[in-house]
Amino acid sequence: MSESIAHHDEHRDDEASKLGIWLFIFTELLFFGGLFITYAVYRHAHPQAFHMAAQQLDVAVGTINTVILLISSMTIAMATTSIQKKDKRTTLILIGITLVLALVFLVNKYFEWSAKIDHGIWPGSPLLEELGKGDTLFFGLYFFMTGLHALHIIIGMILIIVIFVRVRKDKINFGNFQLLENGGLYWHLVDLIWIFLFPLFYLIT
Amino acid sequence: MSSNTTDNTGYKSYLEEDGGRKGIFKWILSTDHKRIGLLYLYAMMLWFCVGVVLGLLMKLELIAPGKTLMEAQAYNATFTVHGVIMIFLIVIPGLPAVFGNFMLPIQIGAKDVAFPRLNLFSWYIYILGGILVIISLFGNGPPDTGWTFYAPYSFKTGTNMLPAALGAFVLGFSSILTGLNFIVTIHRMRAPGMTWFKMPLFPWTLYGTAWIQLLATPIIGITLLMVAGERILGIGFFDPAKGGDPLLYQHLFWIYSHPAVYIMILPAMGAISEIIPTFAKKTIFGYKAIVFSTLAIAFVGYFVWGHHMYTSGMSGAALWAFSLLTFIVAIPSAIKVFNWISTMHQGSISTEIPFLWAASFIFIFMIGGLTGLVLGSLAIDVHVHDTAFVVAHFHFIVFGGVGFAFFGAIHYWFSKIFGRKYDPSWAKTGWIIFFIGFVTLYGPMFYLGIKGMPRRYFDYLEEFHGPNIISTLGAMVMVAGFLIILVNLIKSARHGEKTTEMNPWGGTNLEWQVPTPPPLENFDEIPVIDKATYKYD
Fold this sequence. Notes:
Chain A has helices at residues 2-10, 14-45, 47-54, 59-84, 88-118, 126-131, 133-168, 178-203. By secondary structure, chain A is mostly helical.
């Protein structure tokens, strides 16, 4: 083990790890970018059906979830500030709030999805085939994109739990908080993607 | 692989430094960039042998019209698995994963890459991707879609294509993480004094490559996930019956897979740019031209994907634009060829093995590149699209380009990596047989393509028989040459004459200023760079 420990502790480079997470964020943007292109192509092909289908979604739940994610982005950013003020307690509370908000987002999503599935709408469902091509594509995209986004929420939560534990153990501290900052950056990305998904599916009708 | 020590300093080479681990764990738990590079090398060597066998089986099938060895379905599976292995497991990771890992930190004067643990993790992801590809061979039979996984067939086929597509998805992650690691390494870890324009050319090409890996690979990731969604859920994105558009699949696929060609070829060009000045004993001609043409290829390469789809159905304006851009992207490649030739001009050339590979690379690459322009022309492409001509073209580029550069690079850096020498006469014999076999194998396919022989069929008309026999004979010769090279290298790595000579070729980069084989963290003291590289007195 001697070699790997020597590697990592001697040469800590916060700038490098920040650059790394930014590059990773670029890849995530392009990853979703492929889906945004697909959305644009099919919206262009079926404007009327997309218009009608979007009215099936619950704007209220979408808005609540948007607010939840925006606040959670704020709390994780505040946590990064408070660790620099050597305030471990507040940092932990803020990270905790972020986690709870993320969970609430997922619960909302769960109810939203179940309602759709109860109405017979899921990818490849017989009802969608009856409704036509535009609806099939709209709800296909809806489940695929929000599903992939929810997966990112879950990955982000795991990351934030790791950060929470490390703050508690003082491994992340006043002098060494890059992981917290990087986790925050990742969480902002997850938030940012939702900021685009929300109008595309709920608002543009 | 045993090791050796210089008697005067008593330093420990990276091969001796085992981190207190035993046996295989010395390798699979090590975060040393050099060991990780070799882990990739060994994995790729095994895959390459499988890919070569599959390729040879195809050529044997084509030695005569009608069924020779296998039926249509088996042939379809063979070219699919051959393509998946060769593209996703070998040429895309290829030079960056092996020589990039080994040489990049040394060449820029660093002790390791920026994220050593992430680097090892990338290798594990690579292995996982490989395992998924192996899984695809069982169950309902190996995939038969071609490595391009074109929709709608890719979600209609009854064969086991899902694991193969997921394997490609997972391998994409490995590629992204390697690229990310290299970009950060190059930005943050260059030795003091090594400004951007004092950096050697191999790291420069890795830098251009890394950006493509980072920005293009996610597109194929999401596309393959959509195909998975199509297969598992019937989601409808690419299914015309549900409103989906198979053409969209082709666009998304090639938005990645054309830049992927530059992921393959750029580091190959970088390796050639290292070898040629070393053996011409002359400063590289037009260093900045090579740097900027590298970046130009990386950039323009994003905008030419449509040239794979001339016959798929696109607007006339789009066809014109893609054709024009395809011609433009050829210019920086040509600039590099001029630079290499000019470097040799009036140099004092020694025709050692790596130089022979580099020189033959230029020859093969020229043929591959120029036939690429033939395919880039709209009218001619309609005639030769999906014929043996295309197969010949991309084997000249991808196998001739990347393969020749890879063999050149391994013969160039062999003693530095293993601390042993290879047998030069066997190496030379292997090279000449391989070269002759290569040209004999793929040369006739240009002719066959122009005459109209389609690709991806196990059968052909009687009139194509003659050139196919020549081609198959060429394949046998080439495989014989490959075996000579492989056996020579493996034997030499295990039992070759030991050497601690730091700089056998008289190279000017930093890798020739560290001991052979290098110690664990490459440098006792990080060097300070005060002059440009490639200077010969």
